[in-house]
Amino acid sequence: MRFTKRLSDVVASGKRDFLEESGRGGQCPSLIGRRISSATFAHSEPSPLTTIPHAPSDTCSSHSTLPSAPPRSLPPERLDCLPIMGFAFDQAPERPENIDAILNGLDRYNPETTGVFQDYIAQQCQDQSYDCYANLALLKLYQFNPHLTQLETTTNVLAKALTVFPSPDFSLCLSLLPPYVLAQSRNSEKTGAAPSGTLAEAVQHLSLLHHQLNNAQYDAFWDTLNGDDLYADLVADVQGFEELLRVRIAVVVSQCMQEVQRSILEGWLNLKGAKFDNFVKEVCGWKIEGEKVVIPLNKENEARSSVVRENVKFEQFGRMVKRAYEQPA
After folding, report:
1. Residue 193 pLDDT more than 90?
2. Closest CA to 155 of 93, 117, 202, 225
3. Residue 134: CATH number of its domain
4. Cβ contact 123:102 at 8 Å
5. Quick one: pLDDT at residue 310?
6. Residue 315's pLDDT is what?
7. Average pLDDT in the 222-226 region?
8. Which residues form the PCI domain (predicted)?
9. Residue 73 falls within a domain, yes or no?
10. Does residue 193 lie in a domain region?
11. Is position 168 within any domain?
């Protein structure tokens, strides 16, 4: 099998971008990455690499003004894949030029661009690309123009943000929602379900999934997702939602473990039997040894002792020492 990114490289790349952005005082990108670009499984040299399943799709909308990939058909056992890459918060390499022009110009706050952003989000749901910066721009437009808000589109933005956990995208999206929606969602957690068919109901249910993912309650996440048809409706528009989450969970597991019991990992990935074996071996590049799954060493899961040394020259303190002997004005 030929893939395009090793799991260990994924973690290292994301961490490096995170540190670089933090050092510049800019926005911190996801440790796992932002952008997903298309590639395809092909038989070649065996190499343990990580990819994200990608569902083929047609255009996002019959009246969309955005370019879209031609439809493709793949056999069920074959998956079109998307490598995980690390990118800055406001960057998306596959972002269309017209969207980029809007985001970098005054039209970003023009209500007339709302439809363009909505089509772009529909396209993201279909081709499994992701553009957090554009999605947040649409939510900001909804803030300024509440009458333009579309429940389905807002729900899709939140669902897409879940697919890039453990990045803070979901929380960023929540911060741009109307305060009354968040208040209703919080109150419904105490008093019961939020009013049916409202944004508050969608926020309540998706927030529960977000909480379970962030707290590594993966078994509970799958039980919750599969236990109520409402959850299936909320994520129905996001192609490959479950496959994307499995890869994210696998990346997080690879960051903190060197081996894990097969039965535990089956629950975390919600896979069993041959499907589990294929995912672990072919997608993740891990080894199955009896009832254990062995994860290759990487910079995150390998325990290493580190010695920190700081060389500070006396001349660097010269100015401070000089100030100490200066007379006050």
Report:
1. no
2. 202
3. 1.25.40.250
4. no
5. 81
6. 78
7. 94
8. 130-311
9. no
10. no
11. yes
